[in-house]
Amino acid sequence: MPYSSKSGKAWIERLVMRFITICDHDSILDVGAGAGTYSDLFRARLPHTHFTALEIWEPYHSTFQLASKYDVLRTDDVRTFTPEKRYGITFLGDVLEHMTKGEALEVYEKLLAASDFVFISIPIIKYPQDSYMGNPYEKHVKDDWTHEEVLATFPHIAFSHVEQEIGAYVGVNPNTQSLDTVTKLYGPKIAVYALFDDNEADLGAFLHSVKAADQIVLCDTGSTDGSNEVVARFQANNPDVNLSVYPICVTPFRFDDARNTCLSLVSPEIDLCVALHANETLMEGWRDLLAAHWTYESPRYRYMVKKIGPEQRFTVKWHDWIHSRRGYTWKLPIHEVLQPNDPEQVTSIADLWVYRKEHNRRSHENDIPMLEQSLKEFGNYWKTWSYLAAEYMHNNRQMEALQAVNRALALPGNDSAYLYQLQFSIFRELGSVDQALLSLNNAISHLPNRREPHYIKAMYMHQLGRHLEAFLALKEAETKTERVFDDHDHPAAWDEEFEQWKAKLWSLSGIEGGNASE
Question: Which domain of life is it from (predicted)?
Fold first, then answer.
């Protein structure tokens, strides 16, 4: 066919734009040009590159106006073609399946010797095809290539990518290109992007931790403190860091619109984006670690976030805000979520850490209208109902909080233990002891092997003056020995305070004899 499948083209496009920069000859040879797909992809973006096309079927020249797409247009059979010059990049796009295996290998080796890189695009499934538009050369001669056979047949293939029915491959000429240099170019370009608003105290550490990124994009959503001065000082002291700062106005304010605006300002040449909060920092060595785990086929990555609170207490949980530059959109006005446009493969990197400095919680009354708007847009997301319930509770709207929790509990995929603990907190605020305990016991039943809900129960029993029950709850908690870092993790259930409470509750319970550690 004169037209080419879209499969693999984004992968090829990414590499061509990088590899052409290290070619000694700024020229491209397009074998079997057909409709001029590769000219359409690259001619405008590479205005100084010389384009040559081989198209054996002459009617295609006029049908697809190939003379306007290439500097040189030839009617050659590539099997008998002898290169008269060197090329930086040669395309064998939907070509090799139109000849025998032996001919394909001969063509590939001949053109690789005359090029720095040869890009192959070929069907890797059983793919019979006859003549098309009267063109006998469109017939597939070898119609059963496989990915494994391609790799075994053609030497010096350095990179490959399979997408649906198409395999894409890059052959590297070992006499003209260093594989180490090419491999570095193949690796990901990484950007960090974040919003800030009165983060003067955070931005210095943030910027220092992310300066290894290929690009940093910051969007100021309305700072009135010295945040911009901190950024300006960093820029002055680090002129080689690619940092851009944009003041943005989002009215009415929504976090998803603000983050989407920030993401849109990231260069399209970037492969991987790290979305952060301004009060977060990345671990030392993060870039090399992320690059080592990166694959083109995996567009999203999970990592560990350590939230550091007052008195240096911390919680740890997985997070997933590292994503491909393309194919993602932020959704929801607040507690925004990153939505993939297509099904995604997520890679977990357990030794990649982000540290978040937690500030003292204050009531965010203005968050309530945004949460309510979120539910108008997507009412079946249980987490939004839980966030709304928490805000109602902190703003003394307890009955509305209970209604919101109940809505969340009715939705599929919810974290029932988390929601029952939230329900417990609301009943505790209302002074409804029996209902609070019922909710807490429900939470425990959903987390039978976890220490935290037993610890929370012990603290509540102590608050009620029921110290023996509190002590027994701690003893039960002590039997749960495996700590899991997630939304249920509670540092006080594991640190020295736990032991202190055991001793205190033993004393308060009024039991004589024995030992609290038994």
Answer: Bacteria
- Strand (E) or helix (H) holding 434: helix 433-446
Peptide bond between residue 252 and the one before it cis (omega within 30 degrees of 0): yes
Q: Tell me how many domains the chain contains.
A: 3
* Residue linked to tokens 């994009």: 217
Tell whether the model's pLDDT for residue 517 goes beyond 50. Answer: no
Count CB atoms within 10 A of the CB of residue 139.
Answer: 14
Tell me the longest C-alpha to C-alpha distance in the chain: 102
Give me the residue label for tokens 């709850």. 473
| DSSP code per residue over 465-496 | T-HHHHHHHHHHHHT------STT--GGGTSH
Contacts of 457-466 with C-beta under 8 Å, sequence gap 24+, read 458/501, 458/505, 459/501, 460/424, 460/428, 460/436, 462/501, 462/505, 462/508, 464/433
Per-residue model confidence (pLDDT) at position 4: 81
According to DSSP, the residues that pair with 53 across neighbouring strands are: 30, 73
DSSP annotation of 189: P
The reply to whether 500 falls in a domain is yes
* The overall pTM is greater than 0.85: yes
pLDDT tens track for 61-103: 999 999 999 999 999 999 999 999 999 999 999 999 999 999 9
Helix (H) or strand (E) holding 368: helix 367-377
Residues 148 and 240 grouped into a single domain? no
Q: Which of 294, 438, 312, 311 is nearest to 303 (CA)?
A: 294
pLDDT tens digits for range 327-360: 999 999 999 999 999 999 999 999 999 999 987 5
Nearest to 221 by CA among 245, 199, 254, 249: 249
